[in-house]
Automatic annotation (TrEMBL):
The chain holds residues 366 to 493 of 758 of the full protein. The lineage of its organism: Eukaryota, Metazoa, Chordata, Craniata, Vertebrata. This is Rho GTPase activating protein 12. Residues 22-123 form the PH domain. It comes from Amphiprion ocellaris.
Protein backbone atom coordinates (compact mmCIF):
# COMPACT_ATOMS: atom_id res chain seq x y z
CA UNK A 1 0.00 0.00 0.00
CA UNK A 2 1.03 3.58 -0.46
CA UNK A 3 1.35 6.14 2.29
CA UNK A 4 0.83 9.77 1.51
CA UNK A 5 2.81 12.07 3.74
CA UNK A 6 0.89 15.29 4.06
CA UNK A 7 3.00 17.93 5.75
CA UNK A 8 -0.06 20.14 5.99
CA UNK A 9 -1.71 17.76 8.48
CA UNK A 10 0.08 19.25 11.45
CA UNK A 11 -0.83 22.85 12.14
CA UNK A 12 2.75 23.56 13.21
CA UNK A 13 4.24 22.51 9.88
CA UNK A 14 2.43 24.06 6.97
CA UNK A 15 3.51 25.71 3.77
CA UNK A 16 2.13 27.26 0.62
CA UNK A 17 1.91 30.34 -1.55
CA UNK A 18 0.06 33.34 -0.12
CA UNK A 19 -0.29 37.01 -0.95
CA UNK A 20 1.24 39.06 1.83
CA UNK A 21 1.75 42.68 2.74
CA UNK A 22 2.97 44.46 5.83
CA UNK A 23 0.73 47.31 6.95
CA UNK A 24 2.45 48.24 10.22
CA UNK A 25 6.05 47.85 11.32
CA UNK A 26 7.08 48.42 14.96
CA UNK A 27 3.79 50.23 15.51
CA UNK A 28 4.18 52.54 12.49
CA UNK A 29 1.98 52.39 9.41
CA UNK A 30 3.85 51.39 6.27
CA UNK A 31 2.82 51.47 2.63
CA UNK A 32 1.18 48.30 1.35
CA UNK A 33 3.21 46.18 -1.00
CA UNK A 34 1.36 42.97 -1.86
CA UNK A 35 3.71 40.18 -2.87
CA UNK A 36 3.25 36.52 -3.56
CA UNK A 37 5.27 34.66 -0.95
CA UNK A 38 6.21 31.10 -0.26
CA UNK A 39 5.01 30.87 3.33
CA UNK A 40 6.11 28.33 5.94
CA UNK A 41 4.66 27.79 9.39
CA UNK A 42 7.33 26.15 11.51
CA UNK A 43 6.68 25.80 15.22
CA UNK A 44 5.74 29.26 16.43
CA UNK A 45 7.43 31.03 13.50
CA UNK A 46 5.93 32.12 10.23
CA UNK A 47 8.50 32.50 7.45
CA UNK A 48 8.07 34.27 4.14
CA UNK A 49 10.27 33.90 1.09
CA UNK A 50 9.68 36.06 -1.94
CA UNK A 51 8.86 34.66 -5.33
CA UNK A 52 6.05 32.33 -6.22
CA UNK A 53 7.10 28.70 -6.34
CA UNK A 54 10.59 29.67 -7.49
CA UNK A 55 13.06 27.64 -5.51
CA UNK A 56 10.67 25.21 -3.92
CA UNK A 57 12.04 21.71 -3.74
CA UNK A 58 10.95 18.30 -2.64
CA UNK A 59 8.97 18.35 0.64
CA UNK A 60 8.47 22.06 0.39
CA UNK A 61 11.91 22.96 1.61
CA UNK A 62 13.13 26.19 0.16
CA UNK A 63 16.61 27.03 -1.04
CA UNK A 64 16.26 30.76 -0.66
CA UNK A 65 16.69 32.48 2.66
CA UNK A 66 13.51 33.60 4.37
CA UNK A 67 12.79 37.17 3.46
CA UNK A 68 10.93 37.83 6.64
CA UNK A 69 10.09 35.91 9.81
CA UNK A 70 7.29 36.54 12.26
CA UNK A 71 7.13 35.30 15.85
CA UNK A 72 3.54 34.24 16.41
CA UNK A 73 3.79 33.94 20.20
CA UNK A 74 1.54 36.51 21.82
CA UNK A 75 0.16 37.58 18.46
CA UNK A 76 -3.40 37.64 17.17
CA UNK A 77 -5.26 36.63 14.04
CA UNK A 78 -8.60 37.84 12.78
CA UNK A 79 -10.45 38.25 9.52
CA UNK A 80 -9.59 41.70 8.19
CA UNK A 81 -12.40 44.23 8.03
CA UNK A 82 -13.30 45.70 4.63
CA UNK A 83 -11.50 48.96 5.35
CA UNK A 84 -8.19 47.08 5.60
CA UNK A 85 -8.37 45.72 2.05
CA UNK A 86 -10.67 45.48 -0.93
CA UNK A 87 -9.50 41.90 -1.45
CA UNK A 88 -11.47 38.82 -0.46
CA UNK A 89 -10.33 36.30 2.17
CA UNK A 90 -7.88 38.53 4.03
CA UNK A 91 -6.39 37.62 7.42
CA UNK A 92 -4.97 40.32 9.65
CA UNK A 93 -2.05 39.12 11.72
CA UNK A 94 -0.70 41.23 14.56
CA UNK A 95 2.48 40.40 16.40
CA UNK A 96 3.48 41.28 19.94
CA UNK A 97 6.33 43.29 18.41
CA UNK A 98 3.91 45.69 16.72
CA UNK A 99 4.02 44.35 13.18
CA UNK A 100 0.75 43.93 11.31
CA UNK A 101 0.46 41.84 8.18
CA UNK A 102 -2.32 41.06 5.77
CA UNK A 103 -2.36 37.55 4.37
CA UNK A 104 -4.59 36.61 1.47
CA UNK A 105 -5.44 33.82 -0.94
CA UNK A 106 -8.04 33.80 -3.70
CA UNK A 107 -8.86 30.22 -2.69
CA UNK A 108 -11.11 30.23 0.35
CA UNK A 109 -10.27 26.66 1.47
CA UNK A 110 -6.59 27.63 1.45
CA UNK A 111 -7.07 30.76 3.53
CA UNK A 112 -9.46 28.96 5.90
CA UNK A 113 -6.79 26.31 6.56
CA UNK A 114 -4.23 29.03 7.27
CA UNK A 115 -6.62 30.83 9.57
CA UNK A 116 -7.11 27.63 11.55
CA UNK A 117 -3.40 26.78 11.63
CA UNK A 118 -2.34 30.28 12.71
CA UNK A 119 -5.02 30.43 15.40
CA UNK A 120 -4.02 27.03 16.75
CA UNK A 121 -0.36 27.99 16.73
CA UNK A 122 -0.99 31.21 18.61
CA UNK A 123 -3.15 29.39 21.15
CA UNK A 124 -0.60 26.60 21.59
CA UNK A 125 2.54 28.71 21.87
CA UNK A 126 1.48 31.98 23.47
CA UNK A 127 2.28 30.96 27.05
CA UNK A 128 5.92 30.17 26.14
O1 LIG B 1 -5.30 50.27 1.59
P1 LIG B 1 -4.99 50.89 0.26
O2 LIG B 1 -4.03 52.02 0.33
O3 LIG B 1 -6.20 51.20 -0.55
O4 LIG B 1 -4.18 49.76 -0.51
C1 LIG B 1 -4.05 49.64 -1.89
C2 LIG B 1 -2.80 50.31 -2.35
O5 LIG B 1 -1.71 49.94 -1.55
C3 LIG B 1 -2.48 49.98 -3.78
O6 LIG B 1 -1.18 50.46 -4.10
P2 LIG B 1 -0.78 51.95 -4.41
O7 LIG B 1 -1.81 52.84 -3.82
O8 LIG B 1 0.52 52.02 -3.73
O9 LIG B 1 -0.65 52.09 -5.90
C4 LIG B 1 -2.46 48.48 -4.02
O10 LIG B 1 -2.22 48.22 -5.38
C5 LIG B 1 -3.75 47.85 -3.59
O11 LIG B 1 -3.66 46.45 -3.80
C6 LIG B 1 -4.06 48.16 -2.16
O12 LIG B 1 -5.32 47.77 -1.75
P3 LIG B 1 -5.96 46.35 -1.47
O13 LIG B 1 -7.39 46.70 -1.26
O14 LIG B 1 -5.70 45.52 -2.66
O15 LIG B 1 -5.38 45.74 -0.21
Amino acid sequence: STYVLDLNDKPSEKCGVLNVTKITENGKKVRKNWTSSWTVLQGSSLLFAKGQGGSTTWFGSNQSKPEFTVDLRGGSVEWASKDKSSKKHVIELKTRQGTELLIQSEIDSVINDWYRALTETINTHSDE
